[in-house]
Specification:
Number of strands: 0
Distance between the termini: 17 Å
Radius of gyration: 16 Å
Largest sheet: none
Order of helices and strands: HHHHHHH
Strand content: under 5%
Structural class: mainly alpha
Shape: globular
Length: about 140
Amino acid sequence: MSALYGHENPPSAQGVIEGRLIEIGLRALELGNNVVIDYGLWSRDERSALRQAAADLGATVELRYFELTPAEQRRRLDQRQAEAPHTTWPMSDEELAEWAAIIDVPTPGELAGTEPIDDPPAGFATWNQWRTHRWPPSVS
C-alpha cells in the first residue's frame, strides 16, 4: 500500500491488493507450495473463506494467532516507525484500541483446525462468492 499510495491509505484499494495477494497464494497452493498469509484476517468470515479456499485445493491450514499487549504493540510500532518509516503509517493508541475492539479472536477450535468451517454469510451461496465480494478484483 505504501509503495502505491504513499501516506494515503485508501480503504477501497486495500481489499483489492489483499485479494490479489490471496489469489497469488491460492495459485501457489495449486502448484503444491506452502503459503503464509500474515496480515489481517481479523474476522471469522475472512478466515472461514480462506480455510474453505484452501480445503477446495486439498491444502491443510495452520492458523496462528499472536496476542500482544498494547504496550508491546506500541513498542513494535515505534520501532518500525523509527527504523523503516516508509513501510508504515503512524498509528495512535486510540486507533490501536479501536482495532483491538473489532477483531474476532480465533476460537480454540479454529486454531486447532477441529472446528468446521461456517456456512457463508446470508446472501452468498459459496465462500468463493463472498471472497470476491470482500476482496474485489478492482477499486470501485
